[in-house]
Structure formats: C-alpha cells, structure tokens
C-alpha cells in the first residue's frame, strides 16, 4: 500500500460543481477524482479512471464531516428577551415605590407638625 503517484493538498485540487468531485490533472491526460462524500468518509485516495495511478489528498476531514446527509438540527435559543423583561419590571416596581413615597409625603402635608419633625 501507500504507492501514491503524488500527494496533493485539497487546496490545489479543482472543484467540479457538475460532477461534485475534486479533480487534479493526471500525467496520462485524464485526471484524478475524489468526491466530497469520499472525503467525508475519511477517504483520501483520488484515483484516475483511465490509468492505475492514485494520489493521496491532503485535507482536513472536519471540513467535510457535515456533507452527505441532511441532518441539520441546530437550534439557537433566545435568552436575552425574558431577562430584559424582568429588568424592566424591576425598574417599574422601583418607580412605584418612589410614587408611594410621594403619596405619603403628600399625605403628611396635611399634618404640618409631623413634616416639621421629620425635616
Ligand atoms: Zn491517469
């Protein structure tokens, strides 16, 4: 095993949008090919269909892990909204307390002596 014609980085290969394969020119005139699915399956050998040569593709399998099956189950939770609401309600309760203080102050106006003592 391990008799590669060459080792080629994935960046040096060309992506074929129609055939869904990466390819690289083979000295026989054809080209080495490897599909994204092969890459996702940790296969790194691109073979030329016209001759027996193979190349080893240097790549990061993590870049292709998410390729073949459509299992998209990413959920983003919105955490900030409820927190903001609770903060607003707290501010409102503070305002109520302040308003209550004003009310009691107004009530105390009817008792001038008490106000004088408190002041
Ligand atoms: Zn070839």
UniProtKB/TrEMBL annotation:
<keyword id="KW-0479">Metal-binding</keyword>
<dbReference type="InterPro" id="IPR044248">
    <property type="entry name" value="DPH3/4-like"/>
</dbReference>
<dbReference type="Pfam" id="PF05207">
    <property type="entry name" value="Zn_ribbon_CSL"/>
</dbReference>
<feature type="domain" description="DPH-type MB">
    <location>
        <begin position="4"/>
        <end position="60"/>
    </location>
</feature>
<keyword id="KW-0408">Iron</keyword>
<comment type="pathway">
    <text>Protein modification; peptidyl-diphthamide biosynthesis.</text>
</comment>
<protein>
    <recommendedName>
        <fullName>Diphthamide biosynthesis protein 3</fullName>
    </recommendedName>
</protein>
<comment type="subunit">
    <text>Component of the 2-(3-amino-3-carboxypropyl)histidine synthase complex composed of DPH1, DPH2, DPH3 and a NADH-dependent reductase, predominantly CBR1.</text>
</comment>
<feature type="compositionally biased region" description="Acidic residues">
    <location>
        <begin position="62"/>
        <end position="95"/>
    </location>
</feature>
<dbReference type="GO" id="GO:0017183">
    <property type="term" value="P:protein histidyl modification to diphthamide"/>
</dbReference>
<dbReference type="InterPro" id="IPR007872">
    <property type="entry name" value="DPH_MB_dom"/>
</dbReference>
<comment type="similarity">
    <text>Belongs to the DPH3 family.</text>
</comment>
<dbReference type="InterPro" id="IPR036671">
    <property type="entry name" value="DPH_MB_sf"/>
</dbReference>
<feature type="region of interest" description="Disordered">
    <location>
        <begin position="62"/>
        <end position="105"/>
    </location>
</feature>
<dbReference type="GO" id="GO:0046872">
    <property type="term" value="F:metal ion binding"/>
</dbReference>
């Amino acid at each position: 095993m391990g008799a590669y014609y060459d080792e080629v980085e994935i960046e040096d290969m060309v992506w074929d949008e129609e055939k869904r394969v990466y390819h690289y020119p083979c000295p026989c005139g054809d080209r080495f090919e490897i599909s994204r699915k092969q890459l996702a399956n940790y296969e790194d050998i691109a073979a030329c269909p016209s001759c027996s040569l193979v190349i080893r593709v240097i790549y990061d399998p993590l870049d292709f892990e998410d390729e073949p099956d459509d299992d998209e189950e990413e959920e983003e939770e919105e955490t900030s909204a409820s927190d903001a609401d609770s903060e607003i309600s707290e501010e409102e309760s503070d305002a109520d307390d302040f308003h209550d203080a004003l009310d009691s102050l107004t009530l105390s106006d009817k008792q001038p002596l008490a106000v004088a003592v408190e002041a």
